[in-house]
């Protein structure tokens, strides 16, 4: 009799813990996790292209590529892949709106840059896709 009661109690506990675990998992939550290699590869490309864009901007008008690269740069700063002291964080990073669109576009950009060679212009299409994603 005691064995039957303890078996029912154990079964009830297992069922309740399964239900609670199922309820705790929210399928509407988005995951933006990326591996370290993808992020560092993207960081190298993003920093180089941001510097190039800012040097061109000093000569001419700012363009959409600069804004796109800054969104991805800010994402890398937030992920602690690129270290920037508090004094040197670009104003665009602190004033930008972080939402599903900006995070998912940055994630796609990082994944795209992982697949291209950093010693060529292969990654330019990643900037274009990221700009279109943010529009």
What structural keywords apply?
135 residues, mainly alpha, elongated
Task: Describe the protein's architecture and organization.
The chain has 135 residues and is mainly α. It has one domain (33-134). The protein is built from six helices and no strands. It has helices at 2-24, 36-59, 64-78, 91-95, 100-114, 124-134. It starts with a helix and ends with a helix.
- Helix fraction, binned, reads 55-70%
Radius of gyration: 23 Å
SS elements, strand count: 0
Q: Approximately what portion of the residues adopt beta-strand conformation?
A: under 5%
User: Which regions have little confidence, pLDDT < 50, spanning 5+ residues?
Assistant: none
- Helical region count? 6
Form type: elongated
Largest β sheet strand count, sense and barrel closure = none
Structural class: mainly alpha
- The ordered string of helix (H) and strand (E) elements is HHHHHH
Average pLDDT reading = 80
Our count of domains comes out at 1
Beginning-to-end CA distance, first to last residue: 68 Å
Brief overview:
Helices cover 69% and strands 0% of the residues. With 135 residues, the protein is an all-alpha fold.
